[in-house]
Specification:
six-stranded parallel β-sheet; 429 residues; Rossmann fold; 44% helix; globular; binds iron/sulfur cluster; 14 strands; disordered N terminus; alpha/beta
């Protein structure tokens, strides 16, 4: 096995104070309901009841696929024309649907009522419905609500809204509780297990993950909680946890070798882990990842990439692709730029990177065509038209569905970008 030399971290003036092109116009993104697709797999005894239209039901069904071996843990309570016209009492209907569901599915411990564009249009008060139903079905089922509506949101905000809705339900950690690490953001179980092992090996003590795998394992939160964001799109959740006294550990996100190392190290330092112990703990996984990444670097170095704003993962991905794989960033678009949570990432972006926030899709398409990138990261709605124009695309949503965090996934993440380029080369041959 060839082991690559450690990555050289270029002294980064970075993009901390870089100008950002702010655009407000038509944008092409999925709505927050999409988050249900990965969240329902993560919290194994939760159920997501979308209160929406047939369009919402169709989106979830087609995006999540049909489950053949298990009953799905999501469904849509359809608001029909009678509800929209105010002819039926949508609350009575919702109560009936929930009672029927909970009777048929006693394994459900946490029920999310998920708002949509239609439920917002008819001003259905799902917060009140959730507290009414929670009182009725307590203590066996907790009912919470959040909005996955597509009005002015982007798809990863669904997870943020879901997790933020859970924060008030978290138990209060006592003032005397020892300092505890809380990793925030849904990660694939395999990734979570890898991080747990690394934290344990370096002697970090108890580490909790939020969301938990089971609804009754809600982590306690308080002034001794230190939160480490695993996903960059959790601004509301982070704020809600900070309002409960938790303290955020500033760190980049665990994408790529460099990002993963810095993310783990930020936590290790706060918990007083000796540098030598930290280095020895991560060394095997880091060396494996560096060796695996070397292959992708051959395919990606010098290639030009353009990011449309979609998942909010764009800035950490751009940092990884430019610094560890030598790609050139033509434009890095993000739906929202949360400067505080993104500070460490911005500092690591190459100076002069073109950053944009929000979207005016026509203007951005013009910039993309003019830039002639080798690969474009965008939503599904833009991918096909751009492919027809001869561009190579990567669906942003795939980056959210695939386990990409951590050392052992760094090469898989790079592979997600090499594959479309190789496919395009074969088609052109
Ligand atoms: S929530 Fe709104 S954007 Fe999302 S599927 Fe339903 S109607 Fe469409």
């Amino acid at each position: 096995m060839t082991v690559m030399a450690p990555i050289r971290i270029a002294p980064a003036a970075g993009c901390s104070d870089a100008p950002v092109l702010r655009e407000r116009g038509q944008h092409e993104v999925f709505c927050g309901l999409t988050g249900i697709i990965w969240l329902h797999r993560k919290i194994q005894d939760a159920f997501f009841l979308v209160v929406g239209s047939r369009t919402c039901a169709h989106l979830i069904q087609s995006a999540a696929g049909v489950m053949i071996f298990a009953e799905p843990r999501f469904a849509t309570a359809i608001i029909d024309e009678r509800d929209l016209a105010g002819l039926a009492d949508a609350n009575t209907e919702l109560d009936r649907v929930v009672a029927q569901l909970l009777q048929r599915r006693p394994e459900i411990k946490l029920l999310f009522l998920v708002g949509s564009c239609p439920s917002e249009v008819i001003k259905l008060d799902l917060a009140r419905a959730a507290s009414r139903l929670s009182a009725e079905f307590a203590p066996s089922v907790r009912v919470l609500n959040y909005s996955g509506s597509g009005i002015e949101t982007t798809f990863t905000q669904g997870e943020d809204a879901c997790l933020a809705s859970m924060v008030p339900a978290l138990p209060q950690a006592t003032a005397k509780a020892p300092m505890e690490l809380l990793v925030v953001g849904a990660l694939a179980d395999v990734v979570e297990d890898q991080f747990t092992r690394l934290f344990q090996q370096m002697g970090m003590g108890s580490v909790k993950f939020f969301p938990p795998r089971r609804a009754n394992d809600l982590p306690a939160v308080g002034a001794n909680t230190r939160i480490l964001l695993a996903q960059p799109f959790l601004a509301d959740t982070a704020k809600a946890l900070q309002d409960r006294g938790a303290v955020r550990i500033p760190a980049p996100f665990p994408l790529g070798v460099e990002g993963t190392q810095a993310w783990l190290q930020a936590a290790a330092r706060v918990f007083g882990i000796a540098e030598a112990t930290f280095d020895a703990t991560i060394a095997p996984a880091k060396q494996r990842a560096l060796a695996a990444l070397a292959r992708s670097r051959l395919a990606l170095e010098g290639k030009r990439i353009f990011f449309f704003p979609d998942s909010q993962l764009e800035i950490p991905l751009a940092r990884f692709l430019s610094r560890e794989l030598g790609m050139t960033l033509t434009e890095v678009g993000t739906p929202f730029l949360h400067r505080q949570n993104m500070a460490e990432e911005l500092a690591m972006l190459p100076e002069g990177t073109m950053l944009s926030e929000g979207q005016h899709v026509e203007n951005q398409l013009d910039r993309c065509r003019a830039a002639k990138p080798d690969i474009v990261v965008c939503g599904l709605g833009l991918a096909n038209p751009l492919e027809v124009e001869g561009m190579t695309t990567k669906w942003a949503i795939e980056l959210v569905f695939t386990p990409i965090q951590g050392f052992d996934q760094a090469a898989d993440l790079a592979e997600l970008f090499t594959r479309p380029l190789v496919r395009r080369m074969r088609l052109a041959a």
